[in-house]
Amino acid sequence: MQRTIFLPLLLFAFAAPNIAGAQTLTLKSDSIDVPDRATMFTGPGSDVVNNNCVACHSAGMILTQPKLPEATWKAEAEKMIHVYKAPVDDKDVPAIVDYLTKLKAAP
Q1: CB within 8 Å of 85: residues ≥ 6 apart
Q2: Which of 25, 29, 56, 93 has the most CB atoms in a 10 Å sphere around its CB?
Q3: Tell me, what DSSP letter sits at residue 5?
Q4: C-alpha span between 46 and 99 (Å, rounded)
Q5: Rounded distance between C-alpha atoms, residue 80 and residue 100, angstroms
Q6: What range does the record give for the signal peptide (predicted)?
Q7: 16: helix, strand or coil
Q8: Cα 36 to the chain's mean position, in Å?
Q9: Rounded Cα–Cα distance for residues 27 and 10 (Å)
Q10: CA angle 74, 85, 104 (to 5 degrees)
Q11: What is the pLDDT of residues 19-43, one digit of tens each?
């Protein structure tokens, strides 16, 4: 019985000064730079990339990726869907992979 009473008293003894000295939280506005969303891909097959990839990645970020083989782009698309839970329909993956593979194709 004595232990049951002691524990709440001990907790109150530690918590009381923190409650009395609680600081107020002050929120302030700040600005950040977000990726340029004005750049969109063009040409055949671009809609599927604009509708799926550019929702999270800037076009600039996509354009600075190295030339990757089709299998790597497919693995990246699958990772976005299954690991990061990107809302990309599985039926769009082949078109995305095709577009991105051709985007950096060798001349």
Answers
A1: none
A2: 93
A3: H
A4: 7
A5: 14
A6: 1-22
A7: helix
A8: 16
A9: 33
A10: 30
A11: 656 678 888 888 877 656 667 888 8
